[in-house]
Task: structure prediction
Amino acid sequence: MHVQSPFDLSFEELEGLLLGWGEPSYRARQLWAWLWRRLATDYAEMTDLPKGLRARLSQELPLSLPRPGALELDAEEGTEKVLLHLSDGEAIEAVLMREGDRRTVCVSTQVGCPVGCAFCATGRMGYVRDLTPGEIAAQVLHFARRLQESGERVTHVVVMGMGEPFLNYAATLKAIRNLNHPQGFGLGARRFTVSTVGVVPGILQLAEARLQVNLAISLHAPDDALRRELVPLGRKWPVREVLQAADAYVAATGRRVTYEYVLLSGVNDGLKEARALARLLRGRLAHVNLIPFNPAPGLPFKRPSDRRVEAFKRELLRHGVDVTVRRSRGVRIQAGCGQLRTRHLPP
Ligand code: SF4
Result:
């Protein structure tokens, strides 16, 4: 069974716990700063907390962190992928991407994923379990500690790793709120991007949370028939409903929504699909991110040629839709979109 860690608690919960132990109210602020700002990895470091309190914390709220395992590095790009071992023996992957001044961490929210997108290595692993808020945040803190050694900081977080964040909504939001807390890690809400495959209730809930985080929706197809083949969850929430939920998000936050579209050669990369996509998005506060497919072992898709990618992009632009082609990072170390996994795929 998973033992709760202090990183699973909100500031208010931690404060309530310490007050319940008879500690003065400023203790929670001290402890919070050690955990989230000074990036402590052991209660022993927290020398301004009384010894007795440190002993009780170690006993009742162990500061267990995921144990880093294999690290893969693409030195040319500066992309790093780490395998993190969790306390119950499961493992997840998290990625650090360096681009200019940006230091972006891509985090996982589940071990495996229940959605099973046809083109995704994680999806083929199946679903194992949800991550706790602390396990989600720990991925960011892991890279924050590494960057600290060179005087750098994490500047952005993308929730795009293993798992569907809105199928683990509460833990994902708690991790974001904790990382956003001004007395701790203090990463601004606009520095987060949450990527969903179109879980409508999650999009609507996020709209109500009024958090100013960026929302990315993985559409991958402009019509339900094709989408259902690529994203099995599309059966539950048709394109029309997903777009309505996105409109509600825009209305609540004023934020532009990004639509992710993985380009699979000969499957969804034709001009016909580009035009259909443009018809859907024209007039909406939307931006399309085209992701030429990153090959992963055991997946039956091909990356389209650069010429085809360019033609798809031009067609969207011609119809007045904002678009960029995402330069995939980490592909050489299987850290690109849809390539994360911690188990061997079935043949
Ligand atoms: S693309 Fe995302 S939602 Fe789809 S199977 Fe992979 S991890 Fe899950």
Q: What stands out?
A: The chain is about 35% helix and 20% strand.
